[in-house]
Amino acid sequence: MTRVQKNNHAPKIVYVAAAYHFYAKGTRKRGSASQEEDVSGTSYFASLGLLLRSSRTFYLGLTLNYHNVTLSESSVGATKSDISHSYTSIYPGIELAFRFC
Question: Which residue from 46, 58, 83, 97 lies 20 to 30 Å from 72 (Cα-Cα)?
């Protein structure tokens, strides 16, 4: 007689990721103003995640992400000005990962 034992502990991957962007550029509208301004600066993010194996090649997981953008220059038309604005976000995420090996 062969006895099969089921393991309820799925393999887990805990990870930390981070990146720094030396140059970030975009367009924004402030308040009710209809004129757009071009902005530039730097940004960085960090992520803490947990992946659980759902099959041999797929992992499902949750992440907690932190993102910060610091704007240092604004231009409207030909007028450029130095600014100092910062935007921060903390948000959760759901991941689906595929493993090749």
Answer: 46
Question: Using CA of residue 38, residue 39, residue 44, residue 50, what is the dihedral sign?
Answer: negative
The pLDDT assigned to 4 comes to: 44
Closest listed residue to residue 54, CA positions, set 95, 92, 17: 95
Copy the structure tokens of residue 43: 């940004």
Q: What is the pLDDT at residue 8?
A: 57
Category of 77 on φ-ψ map: left (φ > 0), alpha (ψ -120 to 50) or beta: left
Distance CA 80, CA 68 (A): 23
CA angle 62, 64, 65 (to 5 degrees): 130
Give the tokens for residue 87: 């935007």
Q: Which two tokens stand for residue 21?
A: 């962007």
Q: Is the pTM of this model over 0.90?
A: no
